[in-house]
Design a protein that fits this description.
This protein is of the alpha/beta class and about 400 residues long. It has two domains: about 15-180, Rossmann fold; about 185-385, Dehydroquinate synthase-like, alpha domain (Up-down Bundle), CATH 1.20.1090.10. It has 16 helices and eight strands. The protein has a six-stranded parallel beta sheet with strand order 1-8-5-4-2-3, with helices on both faces. A two-stranded antiparallel sheet has the order 6-7. Helix 7 (about 185-205) runs parallel beside helix 9 and helix 7 (about 185-205) runs parallel beside helix 11. The longest helix is centred in the middle third of the chain and has 23 residues, at about 210-235. The radius of gyration is 20 Å and the shape is globular. It binds nicotinamide-adenine-dinucleotide (NAD). The site of nicotinamide-adenine-dinucleotide (NAD) has 30 residues, from helix 2, helix 5, strand 6, helix 7 and helix 11.
């Protein structure tokens, strides 16, 4: 009989706190880098955060090469560009600052910088076994948890699909989570990435790979969420709410990394691949529709989640807990000015069967969910989400 062991992985160091960015130069010094590769995106450059990091590192007199070509969610081709750019410049340390898009590029670039042929790792599912280049990640959204996960997600241009690469080497040497870096995050990104973080927590809580350890992180993330999400979206300068949401995404990222996510993500990926709908928006929109179906197989967990969200005590009437949870998220989309139907996102109805077919093949995620969603069921969920009716 095969024995299944369960690992629990985190970055080597996770530094959390307001003002923690200021410690970056002393950390960089310890690695003895001779040239730094800094990955970010155009939005972050505009918001002044790239300039702030460059200025801060200026005290070290180590040359810095930037890669800020990311506009929208990244593709394999973009990673190849970043790797080639830093190879030419002989960078020997990679820093990523940004949301999940920039961080996924940064950690993958660090992991591939010493490899000559990238194709097997990016497009042919070969696992990256070793990362030689140190990597430091600084999140500016509270959502994806990329700074604490072993995953990186990219668009595959040829196949119009989003695909994940997974390896423990994608965990950085250091994650610096400074809530001040999220203060300038726009309301729509704050809202969608915040619900994305909750999706990580709830999906990993019901995952077939969940353990008592991962459930502790998921529970804490879900309990914190309702106290901070609305304030963080509508009062972006509220540092307490931003700090709260940073804890939500960190806790949720750790549980995602170790228990995995499931059907919501599986249905969200094709929307990203074909219609370029942002990851957070797709997850937030699909969550109530997907849970309405899969939640029926985990009623006890739905009673727990309703309690974590302070929606009431459903122990005596467990079958009602699922409705309460689903309705909370459906209403939250409206409160946070997020789309609640695929039609609003201009997804065309004829494409739904194609999307369902693509989603039904994402076994890596579907197999984590304790409800087997076949293609027909997936199509029904997309159809409901298209109309925006629960
Ligand atoms: N690696 C993982 O474990 C993991 C998990 C979930 C999602 N993802 C991936 O992460 C990506 C989504 O990341 P995201 O939701 O964090 O958004 P993002 O990184 O795509 O950023 C969205 C927009 O917000 C802007 N922005 C971010 N922070 C800002 C700030 N503080 N101030 C001003 N503007 C700011 C960016 O410039 C960008 O325009 C997707 O590609 C998704 O597939 C990865």
């Amino acid at each position: 009989m095969q024995t299944l062991f369960q690992d629990f992985r985190m970055p080597s160091n996770l530094r959390f706190g307001v003002g923690a960015l200021a410690t970056l130069p002393e950390e960089v010094k310890q690695w003895g880098a001779t040239k730094i590769g800094l990955v970010s995106d155009r939005g972050l450059e505009k918001a002044g955060l790239v300039g702030r990091v460059v200025e801060l590192l200026g005290s070290l007199s180590i040359p810095i090469v930037t890669f800020t070509e990311i506009a929208g969610e990244p593709t394999f081709r973009l990673v190849e560009q970043a790797v080639n750019h830093f190879k030419r410049e002989q960078c020997d340390l990679v820093i990523g600052i940004g949301g999940g898009s920039a961080l996924d590029v940064a950690k993958t670039t660090a992991s591939l910088l010493d490899k000559s042929d990238l194709d097997p790792y990016l497009r042919r599912n070969e696992k990256i076994e070793i990362r030689k280049i140190p990597c430091i990640l600084l999140p500016t959204t509270s959502g994806t948890g990329s700074e604490v996960t072993m995953n990186a997600i990219f668009g595959d241009e040829e196949q119009e699909l989003k695909r994940g690469i997974v390896s423990p080497v994608l965990l950085p040497d250091l994650a610096i989570i400074d809530p001040e870096l999220t203060l300038s995050c726009p309301p729509r990104v704050t809202a969608s990435s915040g619900i994305d973080a909750f999706t990580h927590a709830i999906e990993s809580y019901i995952s077939v790979r969940a353990t008592p350890l991962t459930k502790i992180y998921a529970e804490k993330a879900m309990k914190q969420f309702p106290h901070h999400i609305t304030k963080a979206v509508h009062h972006g300068a509220n540092l307490e709410a931003r700090t709260g949401m940073c804890w939500v995404s960190t806790l949720a990222g750790v549980t995602l990394a170790n228990a995995g996510v499931g059907a919501v993500h599986a249905l969200a990926y094709p929307l990203g691949g074909k219609f370029h709908i942002e990851h957070g928006i797709a997850n937030a929109l699909l969550m109530p529709y997907v849970f309405q179906v899969i939640g029926t197989t985990c009623i006890q967990e739905m009673v727990d989640v309703a309690a974590f969200l302070q929606l009431g005590d459903y122990h005596q009437k467990p079958s009602e807990a699922l409705n309460a949870v689903v309705d909370y998220f459906y209403q939250l989309l409206k409160q946070l000015d997020l789309p609640s139907s695929l039609a609003q996102l201009e997804v065309d109805e004829q494409s739904l069967p194609v999307l369902a077919n693509q989603a039904s093949k994402i076994d890596r995620l579907l197999n984590n969910t304790p409800y087997y969603l076949n293609e027909r069921k997936i199509l029904q969920i997309y159809q409901k989400a298209f109309r925006g009716e629960l």
